[in-house]
C-alpha cells in the first residue's frame, strides 16, 4: 500500500528535526514536503537546517527543497513544529484549506473546539472535529498535542483518574533544556544551575491537564474537576522531563493498586496497534533511584512514561516520580501518534 | 582580647575544609587543632588534605600537624565535620571529656536531649544542655545543626511558623552535589542528569523540621505539630540547595503578609550581633526567575535563605522557592554560628 | 553452529558492564561466566552489580551467579575488565591455565611478548603469541588492547603511518569521565570544570602509540620511531574522547591525500568481515564544527574513529580533531574485536 | 581628587555588565554614562539590562538612564563592549569626536595604527597613537585589547619572549561559554559536550599574539617572528579559558629558568602601581592537577595568568597549561587597565 504523503511545517527547527527523524522510516507516512520560514525557502534542506540531532539527517530529506508555509503543499497531513509566534495564523490557514494539522504549538490548545489529544487517554475528544469544522468553516482541522510537561504528567495521572478519580495533584518539574527549542536556553543561564521559572509553563500544566482528562460536551470540553498546582523548573539535562508528583484520589487506593493500575493500563483497543503506540504507556521501574533522565529517557522509543518511587505521602495519598521524553512523547512522537489515530478512525482516508 | 582556641574534627574532609575557610579570619575563634583519621595524623595539613575548595588554603593551617580524633586537643570547642560512620562515638567521647562539640553529623540530631539548633529560630533549645550533661554524665556537650536541606527549609518556614503557625508543608528539593561530601556523587551518575533519590534525606527533612520548630519540654523536645512531606533530588549543581515549597498556615495570611513577615524577621536580639549572623536571615528576591543556585548562592556570605516566586497555591495557601548555601549555612557556617551563640550566652567562658 | 562460551572478569565494574552489553547479542560468543571480586561472588548478577548503563541489563545475565576470578570458569576466552590493581596476577593465572585473556588493564600492555592489538592496524603482532607461551610456560595467552586515548589516536594516525610514515605527533586530549571507571571522577571535581591532568595517561599515550605501530621483531616489538607528545585532560563529557592532533609526515602529503587515505583505509582483509569490525575504521566528517562527543560518539556502533577539521598547520604538516568511543572502541568493543580476530585466525578453535 | 567620568558602550551586554562591576568601586573612574542600542535607550538600566552576573547590579547604575551610542556622552573615556557587528563604525565616530575608546571588539585590533595593548607587555605600543590621530584626523583614539584567548596566551608566553625569544608556539584552547557573550552558546550545543570549533578564533590567536609581542615600527607594527598554531575549542565551563601550550625558544632555557622568568616578571615600573594591575602577572601554581577553571579562575581578582604543569616536551622545548579569566583579564579588566595606563602616561588628563 502506498504511504500517505505528509508535510512538516517549521521543518528546520528543533521540533521539525525530531519530526523528520520520527517519520524517516514510518510505515504509513512519507515526508513529501518540508516548509519553513522565508529565510529557508528555496534552499535544500541540508543547507537550510542547522542540524542539531545526534542521529544523522536522513538521506531522504537532504536534497528536498524547503518551501514556504503556504497551503499549497502536496499532502493532506501537516505536522507543525512552528513557533507559537507564527503558528496561530499559519495553522488556521492550512486547516481552512483542507489540511489536517497536527500541532505542537500552544496557540490553539485551549480552544473550545480543538482536541488536546493523547491517544491512550482521550481519543473520544476527536468527536469535536465536526463541530470545529462547522464553527470555522474549515475543510481540514487542527488537532493539538499537549505541552511537553503536561503530557508527561497526564500520561501518569490519566490512568489513575480513569480508575480512581483524581482529587488533587501537586507537581514540581525538572525540565530538560531541549524543551525550549533552539537556540533556546543560553548555556550561561543553565550550566551548573537550576532556573526555577519557565514563562507560562505552570499555567499550561494546570489547565491542559484538566482539559485532557475532561469530557467532550455539546460544543466544547468540560474540564476534569481535580485541582492541579505546579512549580516548573529548568535543569541542565539534555532530554527528558522529570516530575515529582503528589496526588490524592477520590476513591482510595493502595500503592499496590496504583502500581497495578499503571502496569495494566493499555489504552483503548484501536490505539494499541498503532505504529507509534508504546506497548505499555506507563512503565513502573523498580529501582529506588530511577527513573533518571540521562539514563532512562531513550527507553521504549521515548513513547512511554516511566514511573518510579511510588510511595505513600503524609499530605496526599501518594507520591511518585515520572519521566517522559519531552521532544518525542512530548512533541513530535505525540503528534505522529495522533495522526495515526486519525487515519485509523477513517477521518483521513488512506 | 585573646581568641578562643578551637579544634576541627574531620579537618581534611569537605566539611572540615569549609570550617577552615570560615574560621580563618574569625574575630572570636582561632584554629588551634586539626584532627582527622589515623591515615592523616602526623602529617602537615597541606600534605594530609586533598584541598578541593576554590578559595586557597589559609596560610595559617598549611603547616599545622594533623592529630588523631582523641580528646586531648588543646581547646574547649570542637567543630565536627566527621562522617556519620565514625561521628557517633568520637563526638560522645569528646563531650564526656569536657569538649563542646558542634556537630554536622546526623548521629545525635534526633536524640531527645541534644539541641538541633538554628540560632535565629530556637536558641531556647539550649536549655536542654544541663539535662544532656546530667543524663550522660558529661562535662561538655553536643550541639547539632540540621541536615543541609532541613536547615534551608526551616529558615524559610520558621518565621512563618512563629507568626502564623504551620499546618502542612510540601517540599521538593534540588540538591547540590557538594551536599554529598567528597568524593561524594560520582560524576557519571549526575552529569546532565537528575537523581530522584537521596538515601535517608526525606526522613531527615521531615523529622528535623518538626524538632527544630518544636518546644523544649521537661526532658526532651516536643515536635511542632505540622506535617511535612518531601521529595529529595540531586541535581548537577555545585553549591546551593534549591527547594520548591508549598504550605498551608493555621492563621491565614496573604502573600504580602508572608513576604512582610520574612523581610522583618531578624531572630532574637542576642543572635543579631553575632559575628556569623546574617543581617537578614531570610531575603526575598524580586526577580521572577530567581533565586538560582549558581548565581545567588554566594550572596550574604552564604548565611541567609533566599526566597523567591512567592505566590498563591491552589492546593496550599502559598508556594515559593527557597535557596540556601548547603555547605555554609547548611554545615560549617551553621555550626560556627551555633558556637558563637553558646559563647554569647556564657555557657562557654571566653 | 554453537556459540563459543566466554567469561567476563570484573563483570560488575564499568568495563564489565560494557562487555555484557556488547556481548549480549554477539553472533559468535555467548556469555557463560561472570566473575568478580569476592564481595560479589555467589550473588546473582542483578544483585551484585550497580548497573550504571543507559541500556537495560540484558535478561540473560540477570540471574547468572557471579563467581570469583579463579581459573575454573567453563570457557576458553576470558574478557578482562579488571582494575589494574588486581589484573596483573589474575590475568597471568588465567593464561597459565589455558585461557585466552583479552585484557583492558594496563599491566601487561607494554610487556615485550604481549600484543597491544588493534585488529585493523597490527594483526601481525599476534605472531608473538608462541613466543609469549614459550617464555612463560603458558597454555593460554594474554592479548591487550590499548589505553582508551591511545587507541583513538592510533586509529587516526595508523593509516597515515602506513601510507606516509609519521615523524612527529602532538596530541591534546579532552577525555570523558567514563574513562575513569566507576565511581571514577567525583562530580565536584569536574562539573563545569576541566582537570588538566590524568595520572599516567600521557606516558601511556606516548609509549603505546609507538608499540602499536611498531614491528614484530625476533622476541619482542620494535617501536615505531616517530615522536609523540601529549597533554591529557578530563572534561565534563559522559562518553567519547576528543583529541586535537597535529602531526608531521616523513613523506609529504596534501590534506586531500590524507583525507583520501583515511576514507580508503579498511584494514586487512581478514579483519573486514569480523562481526564487530566497523565498515570504515576512520570516518571523515565534513561539518566544520564536528565531531562532537555528545552528538557523534554513538555513531557507527562506537567502533570507528571520527575525524574532522583536517587542515594545514603552520608548525606541523597538518592538524585535525578525532573522536572515539572510549568505553566501546577504547575498551570492551576493542577486546571483543581482538577475540574475533584470534578466532578467525584459528588460534582459538571454534 | 575628583574621579574621571567614563562611559560604557554596549552597557547592557555581557561585557558591558562586567565593565559595570569592575568600575563600580574604581578609585580613578566613575561611571557617568551608559549607552546601548536603540531598543534600550531611554530606559533605566535595571529595566534595560537582563542582568546575568552573580554579583548584584551596583546600586549606582540601577536608575541611570541608558542612552544611545552617540558621541554626545559626558565623558572623555568610553569603554566599549559593543558587538563587532556594530562596533566598527560607532567606535570610529567616538574617536573622531575626541573620545578615548577602549575596545573589546575585534574590528580594529589588527589595524596597523591601533595598539593591541597588554600593559605589562607592550606599553610602548601607545607610541602609535599620534600616528593614528594624524592618519585618521581624530581628536580621540581607539585602543584595543586582545581576544580573550590571545591575551591569556600572550600573558604566559610574553615574558618568555622577552627573556628567551619565542620560536614556535602550539596552543589548544578549552574556552568557557562566557567568551561567547549573551545569549551566546545555546545550552543544547554544549551541555556534556565539546565543540571543537570557534569561528575566527584560531586566526585571532595566531595573528594577535604576533602583533602584541611585535615592535612599533615607523607607521605600524612589526609582528614578532615566531610561529603560532592553534586549535580552539568550546567546553562546558562558565568562566576561564584554559590552554595547553607547547613551545620552543630561540635561546634555550631549563624548566626552572622558565618558571623563574614567570615568577620574577612584573611588567614595566609605570604599570605596577596601576589600580587594576595584578601584583604578579603570571603566577605558577605547584599542584600537579591545577590550574582548573572552576576552582582557580577567580583568584588574583581574575587579572593574573595562572600557569601549571610546566614540563619538558619531546617535540618542543617545554609544555604547560595556562588559565586566564576570559571576561575580566580577557575583556573588561584588560580595557580598564589599559585606560589606567593611558591616564598614567598623561595622554588623558585627569
Walk me through this protein's architecture.
The structure is a homotetramer of 350-residue chains. By secondary structure, chain A is an alpha/beta fold. The first copy, chain A, is 31% helix and 21% strand. Chain A is built from twelve helices and 14 strands. Chain A has a six-stranded parallel sheet with strand order 3-2-1-4-5-6, with helices on both faces. In chain A, strands 10-7-11-14-13-12 form a six-stranded mixed sheet, covered by helices on one side. A two-stranded antiparallel ribbon of chain A has the order 8-9. Chain A binds chain B through residues 168, 170, 172, 174, 191-197, 206, 227-229, 231, 233, 235-238, 242, 244, 246, 288-295, 308-309, 313-316, 319, 321, and chain B through 168, 170, 172, 174, 191-197, 206, 227-229, 231, 233, 235-238, 242, 244, 246, 288-295, 308-309, 313-316, 319, 321.
Key traits:
homotetramer, 350 residues, 6-stranded mixed sheet, 12 helices, 21% strand
Largest sheet of chain A: 6 strands, parallel
Mean pLDDT of chain A: 96
Percent range for helical residues of chain A?
A: 25-40%
Q: What sequence of helices (H) and strands (E) makes up the elements of chain A?
A: EHEHHEEHEHEHEHHEEEEHHEHEEH
Beginning-to-end CA distance, first to last residue of chain A: 9 Å
Which two chains have the most extensive interface, and how many residues on each? Answer: A-B, 40 and 40 residues
- The rounded Rg of chain A comes to 19 Å
Structural class of chain A: alpha/beta
